[in-house]
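Let us practice reading a record.
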Amino acid sequence: MLRPDSNSFGRYFNIAERGTARGNHRFYMKYLFDGIDFRGKTMLDVGGGDGMLSFYAACSGAEKVICLEPEIAGSTTGTNAAFQRTASLLGQTNVQLLPSRLQDYDPGDASFDILLLHASINHLDEDACIELDRDRKAQRSYEQLFSKLSSWARPSAKLIVVDCARRNLFGDLHMNNPFVPTIEWQKHQSPRLWAWHLAQAGFNKPSIRWHSFNSLRTGGRLLLGNRIAAYCLTSSFCLTMEKRR
């Protein structure tokens, strides 16, 4: 069983926090993966970008991590290069980056202990996401996607979904949100709606946490980590669920 290595963690945070305020990413990782034991586990990171969260899992003792990022197929953004550079600096060989959408991925006989969708659940099918609360065709699209996820999850596997909720003060006022000005609110849904659809696919025990700014640390979480404050800020949430036995 692989075990966390303090040297690996040091190198990881040096990379992850390059050019940003020291400690913010470390605080967020502790918050995001609260209660998750990676040792000897397998993780699927859906829409994982350059793999930074995948590498955190590996440094925490994960045995194998698959990072799906369809944007690297034919991409010139440097995502693949950034992934390879991080893998080399960390000496990690148990994280694999694949240019695949969830729809197209075939894990074979593999299954996963941890499923992560970090800012990606709405991108699985953006058109369907927009209509998810009212259109049966859109609902069927996500039923198929979540059924795939469920079939790959081991009993009691942990599911982590991070995104922005559709409702936001600035969006409702038809104003640009100064904290996240590029968010297209209509392309998101509430965590309760996601939890309901995921429950139909075999996940249970939903828990919803609301984000505050990482720079404010624990005090910020205590004061602003609630639905009302999130509505006035970024509407960011973390939904965790568990695969039924």
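A brief commentary: The longest strand covers residues 153-164.
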